[in-house]
Amino acid sequence: MKRSSAGTFQDFYSLLQSVHQIPRVDVLLGYTDVHGDLLPINNDDNYHKALSSANPLLRVIIQKKAESDAGVFASNSLQRKKKGLLRPAHYRAKPHLLIGMPQDFRQISSIIDVDILPETHRRVRLHKHGSDKPMGFYIRDGVSVRVAPQGVEKVPGIFISRLVKGGLAESTGLLAVSDEILEVNGIDVAGKSLDQVTDMMVANSHNLIITVKPANQRNNVIRSSKASGSSGVSTDSTPSQQTPSPASQYLSNYSTAESDEEGDLVIESDGAPHYGPVGCPNGGPADGPLPPSLSPHSSQGSLQSLGSHDGSPGRGSVREDGTLLTL
Amino acid sequence: MRRFLRPGHDPVRERLKRELFQFNKTVEHGFPHQPSALGYSPFLHLMAIGTRSGAIKLYGAPGVEFVGLHEENNTVMQIHFIPDQCQLVTLLDDNSLHLWSLKQHSGASELWEDHRFTLKGPPGSPPSAAQITAVLPHSSREVLYLGTESGNIFVVELPSFGVLEDRTITSEAVLRWIPEDYCNRRSCELVEALQEHPKNPDQILIGYSRGLIVLWDRQNNKVTHHFLGSQQLENLSWQRDGSKFISCHYDGSYTQWPVSNDNRQSLPLENLVPYEPMWDIHNGLPYIIFQGGMPRASYGDRHSISVIHGSQQIAFDFTSRVIDFFIIFSSEPTAEFDDPSAMVVLAEEELIVIDLKSAGWPAVHPPYLASLHCSAITCSHHVSNIPLKLWERIISAGSKQNVHFSNMPWPIDGGTNIAPDPPQRDLLLTGHEDGTVRFWDASGVCLHLLYKLSTVRVFLTDADPNDNMNTMGEDEWPPLRKVGTFDPYSDDPRLGIQKIYLCKYSGYLAVAGTAGQVLVMELNDEGAEHVVDHVEADLLQDQEGYRWKGHEKLKTRDGPVQFEAGFQPFVLVQCQPPAVVTSLALHSEWKLVAFGTSHGFGLFDHQQKRLVFVKCTLHPSDQLALEGPLSRVKSLKKSLRQSFRRIRRSRVSSRKRRGGANGKFDQGILQEMELAPVQRKIEARSAEDSFTGFVRTLYFADTFLRDSSRHCPSLWAGTNGGTVYAFCLRVPPAERRMDEPVRAEQAKEIQLMHRAPVVSILVLDGRNIPLPEPLEVAHDLSKSPDMQGSHQLLVVSEEQFKVFTLPKVSSKLKLKLTALEGCRVRKVMVANFGSCKTDDYNENDLAVLTNLGDIQIISLPFLKLQIRYPCIRKEDVSGIASCVFTKYGQGFYLISPSEFERFSLSTKWLVEPRCVVDVPEVSSNNHTHSRSVMENASRKSSQCLFSVTFPFPGVQEEVQVTMEKMVSKNYCTQYSMMTCKFFKYCSNMERCYFLLKKRESKKRN
């Protein structure tokens, strides 16, 4: 196989099937990258990435789809790196839990902007649209201790006061009681009242991004070149990510990107009202990293790099983007 | 790249913004909340009112107003004008004195605080030693005498408030002149009253609370006379010639004392009690005015001031506690007699002026200080630029209601209003809890009642409206007469007005209330008797199995009802279930009225008197909306009033007990709060939330709803759950209007994804101008809307502003206010802003009030934030809820139950007081001097007052005889304490004599 005439993933897949004479068996493809991580090959992009990393040979691992379990990709994925640290007991207790492919999941949360935030902070995105679960958390006023030039000073802050069992916030494992809330969708909450922050969160509830300072600082992501290289997030970053200013990115998001994210339901004529499901139940296939050229939003910065990629193509485009539904 | 340009950096636009927008709080309308002190300057003809929150407000001729605020926000205890000056001194309850003065600045007078001062006692003395109890501004204008709790009287210089220690009148110095058998350590405790001798400024009358009264000579520092009273003293008042004074006492008695040169220790002339059931009327002409005096057992809950003049006697029965009162004398300095013309009474909730010159002593209609809250305000509606014709008709209807008022010109007429005439006629309509709508002239600085409309007549209430409380159960004696309009006790809360819509061109008025009632009215210049058509609108329609647990609907009157001239209802629509009407719209051209409640909305054709359609907006799971508020209506007028009275009476006695219980309770609450801190749930809104069906806004528009080629009348409704319904209407042409029915069909339903409550709906025409009001074009007052270009729909929710194209409702633009700032839209209105530089430029913007009390101006149609001003405190929920914007960038909100603050966002439309107070020339020392004495006598605010005026010589003896008779009945202990005022006529003869004497004394010096 010539490297120059690699073709598409689909071509490669059918080639493999014909070579191995397994034309009707669904298989999963994987390869090991330079760091020794086992990574999937399931679309054009990671296929090309795999090819480019072949040195000199590409070791392809073929596995029947039904056999794939947690032991395959998840153990080395970004999810594993973060969640595994947070909830290792869970994973050990159920090692044979069947976990489907990323396209079978809907994403409910993610940690974003690891590369631009201080290590003590965590920016969490909650995808309400992909979930039927209630958001499920409460916030309260509290006192935050800051280190100022004059010494330690106490300032009012907003904290998570309670997580509802089984709610979205709890199920992510990324938020905990007593975490201090620093930003809501890129806007600093300093100086804002509890009610103001509540309103901001509710107004953004379809796509809530909160930056917290976790009360438990032991589970922070340790940033190193290796970790960031394997995260699959920052390696794809465009130059614009190097000097990010969250606020300005968000301002531009509000004017452009988000306007198509949230569509209102319009019912023409006097037919029966139709209250369709709010979001597409399927998270969409594009969990893997996409090159910037394919993403409509990637130029707006890293905030979008993971989140929007999953969101925009994944949802029912008729309802979400077209705005109009004529009955 | 454009998105990286920061908005708002266009220098041309920035300059234009400065020419268009400017935020000012301009004037406070209505009656000051919790007044605590009253002062009057007969010299300036200005009245001053102090409040418990530390404000002082000065009022003169209509339009002449000044406001000052003490930084301390403490209760104003006393107000004293400095004689013959544009200055006044206030005493606060933190014992601080403040000197204010009116200064002219760029052509208009302004009120400034010059100095403040807190009296300090000698080192080591208790703080009470310097607690000021009495203030006397001396007629020399140089010093203030300050009586204190310790009994010492300090003298301070004006305006510096420097203490002149060598002139302090200590109690020891006074006691040296008192006979030893009377002397005791406590006899000089607490100075109760200080009065300057009316003729001799060097003599000061000092009254101590134990009853001792001395006349102090400030030149020689000695007591010239002493008067050994035995009763606890309340106040002192000189007779005008200085030959007598009156002391009044806690036990309800008062005593006259003669002041003669030969006798240094006078005995009382007489000791009297003023009120008794068998009043023996003498044929005299004095004015006797006193507060209280009613036997406590039967009339202890009344707030009365009695005026007796010859055979006339009236006990004015006020609606709230009397703070203080003063008398205005119309006599010129050259006039032969004092001639009281008006009595001004400051009660806790209203200002009453009684005309003492006209027969029957009618009240004077006040041009300002109106009691907005005579029944609690439930809603307000502002209409700008009223056509002259409608204005005159409303005034004429109002004048028929005001026949019982005196036509005396307003007696407090100091200062000159130099503000330009208001540019247009504006009406502010307030809806009240008792089912009335009041029409206020809001064009200028003085908010003035034009007309009052009552909707009560349409309904059958427990108490018949003709049944007059005053005639029932009242004896002929005492001759009580109810004055004032303050009446906070609603007979039936269901009558409350919730929404008002007035069409200024047609004179149609729609009014909706608490029990789902919607009345459509027409202006009629004559009184008429007619039947009000009655239609019921079942908003639940086919929704079965619900039970309304709220109040019942109002019962209507059968048969014709008599209506007075003014707005007369001709149609009544009652929503079923009878929930509060939450939105209302009237289209006077199409003759349609739309109304909405928490259950749905309906459209009514008031021409054919037919219900066009109803739409239920209720979500099936919303139980709360169905059950309604838990209100149990007990509407027995009398029992309600009585129970309120009982509560008021028992409040004082129970305060102590409750205080103890509260202490424990508070601790419990505190502990609870620590256990469960305040927390807020973060949850996306869902269709299942409560009150999603609540109809928040209704809007009529002639626009392109179905296709872009044909426009048609439409009705838009927005709900609490973020749904917008659009109905296409077919209104028959005028010639067949009565024959063909109005048809409506639902054309669109928009569910906003963020599900926030829809606050307002608006359609912009092809030139991005909001569609004109109904009939506005027909009256040539607006350009006809552009029907060629494409229309746009603006939906304002609590969280977002969103522009959609029409007819294909697709999102075009939006401003996500809440996501960005964490504030929500509470009120929004299109306002027209004109440039202050060029006459021909004006633009339409949105004026927005948020839940944080900020006011923002947002441009149309691009939804760019122009400017933001903090206006109302965010904790002031009722202030934010009461805010109304005008069409020209002004607004009103309630700063207390009784006061509207007026503000302006426009550089062009600004209504604010601008006035000048000139210092009148001092015409006669004697005249002004005696006035200042009168002013001081009226100081005692909380206790009863007694005032006697003798306009003619020789009458005094008669009064004395009368009073002596009363004393023999010995009612002393039953009567409330009183303060006396005593004025004697002052003839020219006497004045000449006085001037001569004064000249002599000067020569001697």
Q: Could you characterize what this model shows?
A:
The complex is a heterodimer of chains A (327) and B (1005). By secondary structure, chain A is an alpha+beta fold. Chain A has ten helices and eleven strands. Chain A has helices spanning 9-20, 44-53, 78-86, 88-93, 168-172, 194-203, 225-231, 246-261, 302-314, 317-320, and strands at 27-32, 38-41, 60-64, 109-112, 122-126, 137-148, 151-163, 180-184, 187-188, 208-213, 265-268. In chain A, strands 4, 5, 6, 7, 8, 9 and 10 form a seven-stranded antiparallel sheet that branches. In chain A, strands 2-1-3 form a three-stranded antiparallel sheet. In chain A, a hairpin with a 2-residue loop joins strand 6 and strand 7 (151-163). Chain B has eleven helices and 66 strands. The chains are: A alpha+beta (327), B mainly beta (1005). At the A-B interface, strand 6, helix 6, helix 8 and strand 11 of A face strand 48, strand 52, strand 56 and helix 7 of B.
Mean pLDDT of chain A: 64
How does the overall form of chain B come out from the CA principal axes? elongated
For the record, give the distance between the C-alpha atoms at the N and C termini of chain A, rounded to a whole number: 52 Å
Tell me the number of helical segments of chain B per DSSP (H or I, 4 or more residues long): 11
Indicate the multimeric state: heterodimer
Radius of gyration of chain A: 22 Å
By secondary-structure content and strand pairing, the structural class of chain A works out as: alpha+beta
Largest sheet of chain B: 6 strands, mixed
Strand order of the largest sheet of chain B: 35-24-23-22-65-66
- Write down the secondary-structure element order of chain A: HEEHEHHEEEEHEEHEHHEHH
Report the β-strand fraction of chain A as a percent range: 15-25%
Strand content of chain B: 35-45%
| Helix coverage percent of chain A | 25-40%
Gross geometry of chain A: elongated
* Number of beta-strand segments of chain B: 66
Count of helical regions of chain A:
10
Radius of gyration of chain B: 33 Å
Mean pLDDT reading of chain B: 78
